[in-house]
Batch of 2 targets.
Target 1
Amino acid sequence: MIKVVKFGGSSLASAEQFAKVGKIIRADQERRYVVPSAPGKRNAKDTKVTDMLYACYHLVEEDKDFRIPLMKIKERYDAIINGLNLKLSLEEEFKRIREDFNNKAGIDYAASRGEYLNGIVMANYLGYGFIDAAEVIFFAEDGSFDADRTQEVLSRRLEETKCAVIPGFYGMGADGKIRTFSRGGSDITGSIVARAVRASCYENWTDVSGFLVADPRIINNPRTIKTITYRELRELSYMGASVLHEDAVFPVRKAGIPINIRNTNEPADEGTWIVESTCHQSKYTITGIAGKKGFVSVNIDKDMMNAEVGFGRKVLSAFEENGISFEHMPSGIDTMTVFVHQPEFEGKEQAVISSIHRLAQPDSVELEGNLALIAVVGRGMKSTRGTAGRIFSALAHANINVKMIDQGSSELNIIIGVSNADFENAIRAIYDIFVETQI
Ligand code: ASP
């Protein structure tokens, strides 16, 4: 069995962190393929190497002297190399990077060097082979990830290499230039590698012990989710919870490979399992709570709306013609409400109202701003009675006015609208009723 292990920037920020990672990898022979991020922050005030590279390359673009910032980046690696007592010099690599910068190799090339160099250090430290991601991860002409070509080349290459380090975050574009995924993209590389070798599991090592039931900035010390399905994860990530890059689930999901989120600083913790499907029930009926502030509800009334064919389409075209995407759309008999992002909508509100009047001839259109949406997600809701009831009684108890409720027919989530000011209290009330009291 093969495990693919990806380590995030904070797991690789210093020689001390590298040593923890080395210990984790050596503890299990199945951990054969390693995907590193670039060195991250060593403390709250520190700067990630990727951000240093972006800043350094901006100087290149402005034809300014970039030697000192580049030297500072080299120092980050040298501190790791010396701390680990490795016989490795990055002198030549940095010489080439300097030349490539002078030749304006591009911002993606610059950013990718963080992972590239960390991969070289990691391979040297572990005694693993090094595979440059530019040789095995490909992007198509339109800039999207080329899954087919990558799968073919990468799986063949990995078959020949028993143990290897493949840097995260970048690959080769159709024009032969380095391209990166979006920020946090090493998660995606890990997932692609896991699929290519048909791994039994994709371990994603970070600095938290898994996915939390709620945001720790709102809930003090929230519980960890033991098992979450891909669909639940998608709902929670969409609503703002983040541990893993959203696009990282697709490759492994396709291949039925579970993801295990682990903590480099607490390797004994089991972390969170992200799976296709499970018969394990969550202890708390709900799996997680997430939410976002800053929505406007656009409430449209029209007598006999229900009987009018095409009414919804006309209303939505009003948003479309103003270039606004909508978030949710609960409806009643003679009303429908469209939730949109406030910052996107504000400047266009009057244009949208007039479009709605022109296209759908409603009786009235009313706006309410400063709303927050909270998603309560859980596969367990399907088989449990009274989930919505519990949410509402908890919110009523906390004196919170519920502005909207929307339960999808999949019974995987309940979405609640409250005012921005009530957002944190609402999350606390819901968390308490399901997790703390567990009645
Ligand atoms: N180093 C890149 C970033 O900071 C990619 C990653 O860490 O996944 O976004």
Target 2
Amino acid sequence: RRVADILLAEPAERQAVVVSAMARTTDALLGLVAAAEQSAPDLASRQEALNSRYRTTVGALLRQQNRADEILGTFDADMADLRGLLHSISLVRQAGERSRDVVAGYGELWSSRLLAAYLGERAQADARKPQIRWVDARDLIVIERGEMGPAVRWDESRARARRHFGADIRGISVITGFIASEPDGLFCTLGRNGSDFSASIVGALVDAEKITIWTDVDGVMSADPNRVPEATIISSLSYNEAMELAYFGAKVIHPQTMAPAVQRSIPIWIRNTFNPAATGSLIGPAAGSQQPIKGITSVDDVALVTSREQA
Ligand code: ASP
Ligand code: MG
């Protein structure tokens, strides 16, 4: 509900929102894969827990029966597929990487479809009546897996983005985070916590004016508040400063996540879903202020070894 409040309050005419799975869902899905590998007897009851949690959420959010039926119909089909996948994993007693990725990605499909349906209901009562669309990122983001992690195939992804986000598209596009496709069409994920990366990729694909990472803190902190109670929110910092802070242990945004935005100089805002009144932190091409030191981080339990070549 809060997410819908935030999105419907945004004045921009075109928004793309990338969502992650509901809390703990990806862990639960990967737990199912591990349980299937061991042919665990409680597989069915664990799957049932996911089932009832989703149904409860759908029931609590959607008022229109036809929307709820449609969402639950798709969900039931996914659940049947999931049961089949888990069954075959339990027979083989080992999950291949592909099966694991397919299972892990369900969480984003379910959360984004539900958000789109809920926004659809809310949009009817909204003065602007924004159009709501659902986009499966597997039709949008094409990646190649390399030793350094996933690398976006920009030309192919851009061509797809042009099809999905033509100039005539208005309103809110709800997009699955975390999942993508490979050039051969196989499904894959961007790695754990990959939804921020998805958001940055989508931002670059649509040449977004800005990318906002909605999280659970007011912004990038000048120090770890557990150790430095006086720590404050850094109102603006450069990409380099943010990368440096992240590299040295601050829980900012992951440097890899920022890369697509940095390449196109798109400003990244870090804002708090639970406190949308807070301005947040702006990470952009410019430092924003002349303050020479923006933040202090520390890395624990690390030994630093410097090796010098003998002249
Ligand atoms: N749901 C995925 C995960 O738990 C992606 C994300 O949260 O960003 O890793
Ligand atoms: Mg997450």
